[in-house]
Amino acid sequence: MSETSCDVVVVGLGPGGEALATRLAGAGLSVVAVEAELVGGECPYWGCIPSKMMIRAANALAEARRVDQVAGHADVQADFAPVAKRIREEATDDWDDTVAVERLLKANVTFVRGRGRIVADRTVEVDGDRYVASRGVVLNTGTTAAVPPIDGLADTPFWTNREAVSATEAPSSLVVIGGGAIGLELAQTFARFGSDVVVLEVAPRILGPEEPEASVLLTDLLTSEGLTVHAGISIDGVAHDGDRFHVTCGDQTFEAEQLLVAAGRKPRIADIGLDTIGVDGSGRSLEVDDDQRVADGLWAIGDIAGRGAFTHVSMYQAERAARSILGEDQPPYDPTFPRVTFTDPEVGAVGLTEQQARDRGMNVEVTTSDIAASSRGFVHGPGHEGLVKLVVDTDRDVVVGATVVGPSGGETVSGLAVAVRAEVPVSTLRNSIYAYPTFWRAIESTLPKPS
Ligand SMILES: Cc1cc2nc3c(=O)[nH]c(=O)nc-3n(C[C@H](O)[C@H](O)[C@H](O)COP(=O)(O)OP(=O)(O)OC[C@H]3O[C@@H](n4cnc5c(N)ncnc54)[C@H](O)[C@@H]3O)c2cc1C
Ligand SMILES: NC(=O)c1ccc[n+]([C@@H]2O[C@H](COP(=O)([O-])OP(=O)(O)OC[C@H]3O[C@@H](n4cnc5c(N)ncnc54)[C@H](O)[C@@H]3O)[C@@H](O)[C@H]2O)c1
């Protein structure tokens, strides 16, 4: 057993941990970075990047299928092989992180491959070797797919996001457990590649955290594309007969070649030794302050910090933890929380939903408009469905929440992200020029009229 002294140990190198280790080493600290699997974490290898490559390919198929309505005729034959190749060769380097490790080493970070565990204050052990950090430890251990306690499920060869993005062909049929971001993005993708897809969501509607109008629109569109979406359905049991999955819900049974479990995420905090320093790791996340500090000499960033399981959140928090560790000035935490679900149409959102605003006791005015009925929606034609929803705090005359569902909805919402973040008065938004005929011009028609 060896003992190494350093300034900071980073345990887990998701996108935020990797950036933080590099930033601290660049500031002259001695940093030990510990990663059990691949440097960069879930996002580049099994999450955002491969799934968005799949979505890009699936959207190309959908656009090609719209040619008949606007530009003649296109015969479309879906083939999953090119996107599987792109994921293997361009995105993940065949799930090899050599380049990322070299980048870390070049940045003067000491890299340790292995599973880190806190064994005492500011002390992490990896395979029997100890690293003692004078300034402290940063945790960025992320999440794994949560497997719901459904009778029989654990004994079957179900897919999680990892198997889904590593697939080399689309299954003939697929049942998806969970109508959240992962479930919906992958369900639509595989359906566009020809899979017969059923989505089973236990909550009353899919995409529960977003506005109900987005859930209704998306349910209608997915259904019209040929997917079957059941919300408010309870799964009694799952079996696999060696060939096919059988998913039982009351008197209905759904059969499929593959089963994807996309029912949320489980934080990796229960078994990393937090108990040895008196920190409770039994919950859904760690409690952090605006510096990402859990306790003296301990910081947490990313999914385990419980303020949004998104790469951009993890990166933002990495910078905040860096400032805290380096004793630099810290601006207030950005409360606006932008997010995008990359279904087609995309669901872009920022700030509060109507319900969240009302729950906070705000006096709100809510307005919506139909993207399809906007000039750009009219021009766009097939695939133009969408909506804009604004939640305005009437006491302050500012937009506190916005949702844009539509083609490039995740891009269109960006102007509103700035408006919410900068608390731009609605009167200023009204007295602004919106380029014609853009999708974002629909924002102007959604603004509440002056009282
Ligand atoms: C299919 C899918 C699609 C997604 N799409 C998007 C998207 O489009 N946009 C977006 O913003 N977010 C997306 N996300 C979420 C995003 O991937 C995560 O929020 C992001 O990876 C940040 O996670 P993290 O930094 O908390 O850690 P993770 O990325 O989970 O990384 C944690 C790392 O810690 C390592 N680790 C864990 N325990 C230990 C230990 N004890 N010792 C050493 N190492 C350890 C793990 O091996 C892992 O590499 C997606 C997720 C999935 C699954
Ligand atoms: N575009 C993006 O930015 C993006 C894409 C994918 C994932 N993510 C991140 O990853 C997180 C995890 O994604 P996710 O989709 O796994 O989780 P989620 O929590 O967003 O959705 C999981 C869904 O599964 C449902 N569910 C749970 N148990 C079930 C059961 N027994 N039967 C049927 N349904 C059940 C839940 O009600 C929920 O609607 C997201 O919340 C998001 O933060 C982001």
UniProtKB/TrEMBL annotation:
Binding residue positions for FAD: 52, 116, 303
Gene3D superfamilies: 3.30.390.30, FAD/NAD(P)-binding domain
Pfam family name, one: Pyr_redox_dim
Known cofactor(s): FAD
InterPro entries, A to Z: FAD/NAD-bd_sf (IPR036188), FAD/NAD-binding_dom (IPR023753), FAD/NAD-linked_Rdtase_dimer_sf (IPR016156), Pyr_nuc-diS_OxRdtase (IPR001100), Pyr_nucl-diS_OxRdtase_dimer (IPR004099)
Keyword Oxidoreductase part of the UniProt annotation: yes
Residues in Pyridine nucleotide-disulphide oxidoreductase dimerisation domain copies: 338-443
SUPFAM superfamilies reported in the protein's UniProt record: FAD/NAD(P)-binding domain (SSF51905), FAD/NAD-linked reductases, dimerisation (C-terminal) domain (SSF55424)
GO MF terms held by the record: flavin adenine dinucleotide binding; NAD(P)H dehydrogenase (quinone) activity
Domain FAD/NAD(P)-binding: 7-318
Keywords attached to this entry: FAD, Flavoprotein, NAD, Nucleotide-binding, Oxidoreductase
Cofactor comment: Binds 1 FAD per subunit.
Ligand binding (NAD(+)): 178-185, 201, 264
Disulfide bridges in this chain: 43-48
Sequence similarity: Belongs to the class-I pyridine nucleotide-disulfide oxidoreductase family.
Cross-referenced PANTHER family: MERCURIC REDUCTASE
Protein name, per record: NAD(P)/FAD-dependent oxidoreductase
Species of origin: Aeromicrobium terrae
